[in-house]
Amino acid sequence: MSEKITRERIVACARTWLGTKFQHQGRRRGQGLDCIGLPVMVAVELGIRLTDGSSATPYMFGDYCAQPIARGARVQIECERLLVQKKIEDALPGDLLVMRIPSEPCHIAMLAELTFSRAKMTTIIHAYSGAKKVVEHIFDDRWRWRVCGAFYFPGVE
Question: How many angstroms separate the CA atoms of 119 and 17, rounded?
Answer without folding.
Answer: 24
